Amino acid sequence: TFTPQNVSDTLVAAKRLVSLMSENGKLGNALSILKNEMIGSFCFTFVSDDNAVYAARDPKGFRPLVIGFRKDINTYIVASESSALAAVGAQLIRDVKPGELIKISNAGLESEIFSEEKNSAHCSFEFTYFAHPSSIMEGSNIYTVRKKIGQYLARKFPIEDADIVIPVPDSARPAALGYAQELGIPFEEGLLKDRYSRKGPLRSFIEPHQSDRVEINRWIIPITPVIDGKHVVVVDDSLVRGTSSKAIIKALRRAGAKKISMVITFPPIRFPCYAGIDFPSKEELVTFFDDNKDYSEETMIEKVRQTIGADFLGYNDVKNLADAVGIDVNSMCFTCSTGDYSPLGIKPVFKSRAEIKGE
Questions:
Q1: What's the confidence (pLDDT) of residue 352?
Q2: Which residues pair with 94 in a beta bridge?
Q3: Regarding predicted confidence, which is higher, 125 or 217?
Q4: Pairing of strands 53-57, 43-47
Q5: H/E element, 75
Q6: pLDDT, tens digit (0-9, with 9 covering 90-100), for 291-318
Q7: Angle between helices 27-37 and 9-24 (to 10 degrees)
Q8: Which of 24, 176, 180, 208 is the most exposed place for a label (fewest CB within 10 A)?
Q9: pLDDT (tens digit, 9 = 90+) per residue, 192-211?
């Protein structure tokens, strides 16, 4: 029985999958039907009554899913990304392909394709923010990719009169290093998270409440001797709600920064994500303005710059990011930046977070 207390998208999908399996007999057939009934991204793992493990990745490959093997215990392992395999002493074999169903049993590893799509839609946010730097994703190491993104960003925005380049900890660190090395500007750790605070290690934009996001950013602390009197280039992985950026720029001003230029590894986020990232409404984005006008990108960026208080703001663009990642732009999802929801097959009616929750 579904009640408000026990309903989740996973539970609904699981119950529907069981129903389809009873009608169609095979899990692959059931998945090929279910994927047409769902909007969004998914990676499923199941344990069957005969102790087999199944894993399936959605046909667009929005989210990563990998297969590993631990030789000493002769065991296959499925994980969301390869860093988890390394943590348990397993070796990465390969990515689960988009639309692939894997079965792991005493008989070994079996595979079938339950759905084929012409183009993938790998989430671009994974490469700049979500994935662990040590992970291998779609054949590339995330740390190396992020460093390359920084190098490409430096070519797009060569701020050569800067004194230092600093990252916003932690996921922007490789990109900041790449940016600094490309232009020959000193790389410094000018901001550090307070590991002793309860919320210091957390990521702010994931927190659903503004008060929690503000609390996290209170514990990103500038190192004044590094910052004082300098033109600082701040590299960040993304600019979603602007909470972090405003707090960081204020802190850098207090630390004596002479000038603050901020460059963002991800393009402007202007649209809600319906594929697994928690910004489901336009109104919570820093690129949304109360007058609801459709500004040009140049004007929008200037308004965001004024909002966060930087002296300069530069965003990456879709093609530059895809080129740095090394995946064709048509095989990546940039819906949150472009507003093109064709990878999801929908034309959404935008709602506020309160409307989505039925409040």
A1: 76
A2: 67
A3: 125
A4: antiparallel
A5: strand 75-79
A6: 777 889 999 999 999 999 999 999 999 9
A7: 130
A8: 208
A9: 987 766 554 544 454 554 44
Distances (CA, A) of 10 to 15, 137, 181, 214, 350: 9, 24, 44, 31, 23
Nearest residue to 133 via CA among 96, 81, 180: 81
Q: What per-residue confidence (pLDDT) applies to 2?
A: 46
Q: What angle do CA 358, 334, 176 make, to 5 degrees?
A: 110
One-letter amino acid identity for 290?
D
Query: Torsions phi, psi of 303, nearest 5?
Result: -65, -40
Q: What would the mean pLDDT of 180-194 be, rounded to a whole number?
A: 95
- Supply the DSSP string of 134-202, one letter for each residue: T-EETTEEHHHHHHHHHHHHHHHS--TT-SEEEEPTTTTHHHHHHHHHHHTPPB---EEE-TTSSSTTS
Q: Is residue 62 classed exposed, middle or buried when 0-12, 13-18 and 19+ CB atoms within 10 A define those classes?
A: buried
Q: How many CB atoms lie within 10 A of CB 202?
A: 15
Parallel, antiparallel or unpaired: strands 164-167 and 53-57: unpaired
Average per-residue pLDDT for the chain: 89
Cα 183 from Cα 62, distance rounded (Å)? 33
Give me the residue label for tokens 């602390």: 221
Q: How confident is the model at residue 214 (pLDDT cuts 50, 70, 90)?
A: very low
**Between 171 and 200, where is the model more confident?**
171
50 SS3 class: coil
Whether the upstream peptide bond of residue 170 has omega within 30° of 0, thus cis, is yes
Nearest to 300, CA basis, from 239, 250, 210: 239
Q: How far apart are CA 54 and CA 115, in angstroms?
A: 16
Q: Domains of the chain, with CATH numbers?
A: 9-118 (3.60.20.10), 124-356 (3.40.50.2020)
Structure tokens at 318: 């879709």
Q: Which two tokens stand for residue 194?
A: 């307070």
User: Sign of the CA dihedral 159, 163, 168, 169?
Assistant: positive
User: Of the candidates 286, 251, 266, 280, which has an alpha carbon nearest to the alpha carbon of residue 334?
Assistant: 266
Which amino acid, residue 130? F
Report pLDDT digits (tens) over 219-277: 789 999 999 999 999 999 999 999 889 999 999 999 999 999 999 999 999 999 988 78
